Amino acid sequence: MTNTLIVEDNVSFREILKNILIGRFPSMTIREAADGLEALMEIETKTPELIFMDIRLPGENGIQLTRKIQASHPATIIVVISNCDTIEYRNAALEAGAKAFVSKSSSTPVDIIDTVSRIFPTCQPAS
Length: 127
What we know:
5 strands, alpha/beta, five-stranded parallel β-sheet
């Protein structure tokens, strides 16, 4: 079972992502946070193995949070998600410690599933 945290302020996108993940990774436990403060509280309650992190969040942005989480929980795998699909955002996410970047605007559910399978080999999709 993979403990996953989705850090996303857009409720609709958070729900879509959650449904994609649960549909293909039924053993995945998913928790949610709408901002950085809530995310940090969730992490201290139970450290996730995998985090989907939006860049634009109320308060601290996702790049800052990624850096902070990687400093205190280096084994946690972070995938940054954003509508801003630029090389600058991708590089900033990877430099902060993210293992992958997923574009909200151009990625498909298959892209998301493939990303999880590639960066988190013990979490394989159900057939």
